[in-house]
Amino acid sequence: MTKPKSMIVAGVMSGTSADGVDVALCKIRPSPAENGPPRVSLIGAAGFHYPKALRNAVLAAMDAKAMAVADMSRLHWRLGEVYADAVAGAAEQFGVKVDLVGCHGQTVYHQGSASKYLGGDVRCTWQLGEASVIAERLRIPVVSDFRPADLAAGGQGAPLVPMLDYCMFRSDKVSRVLQNLGGIANMTAIPAGGAVGDVLAFDSGPANMVIDACMARLFGKGFDHGGVVARRGVAIRRVVDRLLRERYFLAAPPKSCGREEFGDAFVDRFLATCRKAGATEADVVATATALTAASILEAYRMFVRRHLERKASAQDVEYVVAGGGAQNATLMTMLRAGLEPMGVRVRAMDELGIPAQAKEAVAFALLAWLTWSGLRGNIPSATGARRPVVLGKVTRG
Predict the structure, then answer these.
(1) Equal fold, 7-157+358-395 vs 163-352
(2) How many whole angstroms separate alpha carbon 366 and alpha carbon 196?
(3) Which fold is adopted by the domain 163-352?
(4) Which of 2, 117, 284, 321 has the most beta carbons within 10 angstroms of its beta carbon?
């Protein structure tokens, strides 16, 4: 698009938990070294909750069997207004003038693997939030719709955050696994001293999604604050072990998932299995939490540890955790109990200078800057794409 230059970029992220909007204001500069990664500095981050009615509409769209086209269109445009308000609010809060917006949008459907449809093999993805509304309201360019270019190149369209992980957190001294605990659990493994082509990244399964759904159905609450309910219960290990034998957990990367795999239908089945095993309501939440932890640990053992041992120039491993699930003390205790005996040090993303909740928004600020600069943003070793591509669509303000 243009020669890379220093810009203030607002990254906007709405995750699969559908609880609101995260905005990260970043200063992004070209590297002083030829072909080096850009430099990303976080100016500030802000979160904005969806009103209850809007969140309900988003959740209905995600699991809709038959939602009116008119309502989908209205939601798409309403979210554009919500995102514009969020960027304007964050810019005012931190006293900055934004040059560019990178808006991921709200995913309502994502199918990273091809399936037959009307005589052809189709991969597809759909993120809501009309970029033209944001661009007109703020009178600045907006980059949106990041995933389709990677899908068109044969990739899963996810995960895209690994580009940020590589640019900001690569180390010559230690291997790092960057673990995000949003609705879905995704991890990026960067071998010590590794090149961008050595990055391994994928979605391991649910993080908060199943836990939150169980809390909503059983306790009328949006999430298990601090993991208190899970701590009262007893995880039913035979239920967890049975679920871990399902196809998604055993599949090798590249792979990505969402509500299509772990939404209402999965939760219905999960609850029925727990009840058949005699679980109390607290036991159900404990079992959902144990499923998240066990699926992450199994993914590390099956896919990540071997990759790091083969690719890394040094064997020390740091496991850096971000996302809302990092606030769930019971989940974090389970993860530490599994990782630390393998010699893995668990750290919080905040220790590396990025608030845990803001990381994905920072990633889409970076991806927007790359797109505006005409630079490629996907990592084929993470998404499975045939080649690196420039991501996103530009709407000029």
Answers:
(1) yes
(2) 16
(3) Nucleotidyltransferase; domain 5 (3.30.420)
(4) 284
Question: What are the pLDDT digits (tens) for 128-177?
Answer: 999 999 999 999 999 999 999 999 999 999 999 999 999 999 999 999 99
Query: 208 with 181: CB under 8 angstroms?
Result: yes
Please give the radius of gyration of the chain, using alpha carbons only, rounded to the nearest integer: 20
Close Cβ partners of 95 (under 8 Å, ≥ 6 residues apart): none
> Please, what is the Cα angle at 365 between 103 and 84, to 5 degrees?
35
Sequence-distant (6+) residues with CB within 8 A of 241 are: none
Question: Hey, what amino acid is at 270?
Answer: F
Amino acid at 126: W
Using DSSP bridges, classify how beta strands 20-29 and 7-14 pair: parallel, antiparallel or unpaired.
Answer: antiparallel
Q: What is the pLDDT of residues 329-376, one digit of tens each?
A: 999 999 999 999 999 999 999 899 888 888 999 999 999 999 999 999
211-268 per-position pLDDT tens digit: 999 999 999 999 999 999 999 999 999 999 999 999 999 999 999 998 889 999 999 9
The model carries a pTM of: 0.89
Residue range 7-157+358-395 forms a domain whose CATH class is alpha beta
Question: How many CB atoms within 10 Å of residue 263?
Answer: 19
